[in-house]
Amino acid sequence: MSKTFAFIAHPANLEQLKKFWPFAKIVPRFLSAFLAKIAFPLKITQAQGIRSVNGKTIQGSIIVCPLLPGQFFRPQEPSIRDKIIHAVQVAKNSGASILGLGGYISGAINKDPELAQALKMPFTTGSALSAWSVFEALYRAARAKKIDFQRSTLSIIGAACPVGSLCARKFSGYVPKIILCDAHRDDLEALKNKILTYNQIEVLIEDDMRKAAGKANLAIIVSCRPEENIAAADFKPGSIICDIALSGTAKHAFASRPDVTWIDGGLIKTPHQDIIQAALAETMLLTLEERFVSYSLDEDTNIDKLDEIADIAARHGFEVWLPDM
Q: Is the pLDDT of residue 1 over 60?
């Protein structure tokens, strides 16, 4: 009998919300947040026959929780917690042995220990494979563009979140200067001190994400606050941007900047040549390994897990996806 996982995601925008819940098409836009609260989580697909290159097979369920990205930036409301718990119950009913958390759901659980305890099953946020995929994508893109890591400055927008923190710690062994940007300055100070404990590089903290974008030739966009936007014009000529933010800068915005390399990051290619999110891929890989334990949890995830999950991915034929340079 094949092992089973469940993965919970949420719509990236109102258009996706309407796709999953068709009745939303008749609801005015200003009521979209209310709509997300009253809709029920849906199991949208049963993924069967997911096969490793070594022949092992698993299956799983994809569940959509009706919450929009902007709702996760607001103070936690009971209705949001209830919606996540409801989605988890759908996952449990599907018979899953491990739960994957996509998008901003993982951040909500990281900030709410009681909610994490309420899951009562092993789970992963996919942060380790997401961070590894960003590192691998930027490394390969920089090599293709003949950009020397050892002479580069890296900006991480959304550095206080788990993936941002892992990226900062990983890259600190390869670049001489990192700029950390996020709304949570105390978290950035703690991250800066953690980095300097292991690597004596230059670490700056910048509150303005547009300024952070303009000071580096390498940039990672992990998350963007809804009230702020980054324009293509904010980036330095010849820079490389790896964007894994659900509500981040759209690729089409860079049509006017052919000098800038934009990477849709955090993506993994499966042995079947499907392109999926790294968080989903990590959930699949742990299921293939039958490692039904909580794995990538928060910003304090052991940095060694990046190399470990990369080795597991290679063992099963999963690889980081990168567009042709």
A: no
Task: Give the whole-angstrom CA distance, residue 196 versus residue 191.
Answer: 9
* AA letter at 175: V
Amino acid, res. 157: I
Stated as kind and residue range, the H or E segment containing 131 is helix 127-144
Q: Which of 224, 243, 267 is the last residue of a domain?
A: 267
Per the listing, tokens 């991480």 go with: 156
Q: What is the pLDDT of residues 86-116, one digit of tens each?
A: 899 999 998 999 999 998 888 788 777 778 7
Separation in Å, CA 240 to CA 17, 146, 154, 263: 31, 11, 10, 8
Q: Give the CA dihedral 317, 322, 324, 325, nearest 10 degrees.
A: -140
Quote the domain boundaries for residue 292.
3-127+277-320
Same domain, 36 and 72: yes
How many folded domains does the chain comprise? Answer: 2
What angle (nearest 5°) sits at the alpha carbon of residue 175, between those of residues 110 and 305?
A: 40
Q: 55 and 89 share a domain?
A: yes
* 323/325 Cα distance (integer angstroms): 6
Average pLDDT over residues 302-320: 96
CATH number, residue 172: 3.40.50.720
Give residues with Cβ within 8 angstroms of 120, minimum separation 6: none
Flag whether pLDDT at 300 surpasses 80: no
Q: Does any domain span residue 179?
A: yes
Residues 261 and 134 in one domain: yes
What are φ and ψ of residue 119, in 5° steps?
A: -65, -40
Q: Which of 58, 56, 33 is nearest to 46 (CA)?
A: 58
Span 189-234, pLDDT tens digits: 999 999 999 999 999 999 998 999 999 999 999 975 544 567 888 9
Q: In terms of domains, do 172 and 114 share one?
A: no
- Would residue 71 count as lying in a domain? yes
pLDDT for residue 75 is more than 60: no
Per DSSP, helices labelled H in 147-220 are 162-171, 185-198, 209-214
- 91 and 166 both lie in a single domain: no
284 with 249, same domain: the answer is no
